[in-house]
Design brief:
It contains 14 helices and six strands. It is of the alpha/beta class and 289 residues long. It has two domains: 192 residues, 5'-nuclease (Rossmann fold); 75 residues, 5' to 3' exonuclease, C-terminal subdomain (DNA polymerase, domain 1), CATH 1.10.150.20.
């Protein structure tokens, strides 16, 4: 197991709920149903992912963070935020409660806070984790790369081999260190979140500017020195750039209602089995601990 054996750290898994829900839904056919006709492809895929992670990491703690259906503080700042995303497929909508039941059967906290996103809950948990704990964030959302640190690793699940984001890999792939990911997104934008970015500023230009000046604030301060149309665009959009960075920055001080010890992984195999039977899933129960 990474880190734990070397440094004798506790291990905490933090799952981005809807990131894995969508991955499960689109990864398995909707022809997977139980006897009453209820589609359960996402439920089955989520169970396989969850239990596979449990067996791989043998975590001491496990949390699931979820988006809240209410608008977030980012929507208040920028109404177009994530405005282009399609609605949830009806075949998936009917499985959400079942997935919540599945999570509850393992006595795992499912944390959702009005006004915030799952990323913010995840960021808060990693910030306040005990110093003796290594956190593994399981998500397909690259926004979470800004959280990567010595004791925070982001795992992007993959059917062949999970991708393990360390600070070194983030720097290699993004061109900047994890803490500068929001600055980078402010300049180039983020289509997945509908953040426009600065016109004509691409990844290479943004990374070059960040290498030269060290941060978005310093780039803005020295914007008069930047050549070409991209430089002029930044000069004309400095307030937008600051807004885009705020949209891209994970809030790490969310008022969560869940104490750390609530995440200690302890579950009743009988309760899990009863839930699986009610969901119409035949699967083994993970051996943890």
């Amino acid at each position: 197991m990474l880190f734990k054996g070397v440094f004798a750290l506790s291990t905490c898994l933090i799952l981005d709920c809807f990131s894995l829900v969508y991955r499960s839904f689109f990864g398995l056919p909707t022809t997977i149903k139980r006897q009453d006709g209820q589609i359960i492809n996402a439920v089955l895929g989520y169970y396989n992912t969850l239990t596979g992670l449990m067996e791989q990491f043998q975590p001491d703690y496990l949390f699931v963070a979820s988006d809240h259906p209410s608008p977030t503080f980012r929507h208040e700042m920028f109404p177009e935020y994530k405005g282009h995303r399609p609605p949830m497929p009806e075949e998936l909508r009917g499985q959400i409660q079942l997935i919540e039941e599945l999570i509850a059967s393992f006595s795992v906290p499912l944390i959702s806070i009005p006004g915030y996103e799952a990323d913010d809950v995840i960021g808060t948990i990693t910030r306040y984790a005990p110093s003796s704990t290594h956190c593994y964030v399981i998500t397909t959302d690259r926004d979470a790369l800004q959280l990567v640190a010595e004791q925070v690793t982001v795992i992007a699940p993959n059917s062949k081999a999970n991708k393990v984001f360390t600070p070194e890999l983030v720097k290699h792939e993004m061109g900047v260190v994890p803490e500068l990911v929001p600055d980078l997104k402010a300049l180039v934008g983020d289509t997945s979140d509908n953040i426009p970015g600065i016109p004509l500023v691409g990844p290479k230009t943004a990374v070059r500017w960040l290498d030269m000046f060290g941060s978005l604030d310093e780039i803005i301060y020295n914007a008069h020195l930047l050549p070409g149309k991209a430089g002029r665009n930044l000069q004309e959009n400095t307030e937008n750039a600051r807004l885009y960075r705020e949209l891209a920055t994970i809030e790490r001080n969310v008022p969560t209602y869940c104490c750390w010890q609530a995440g200690r992984l302890e579950f009743s195999e009988q309760e899990v089995r009863e839930t699986l039977d009610s969901l119409g899933i035949r699967a083994s129960i993970p051996q943890v601990g």
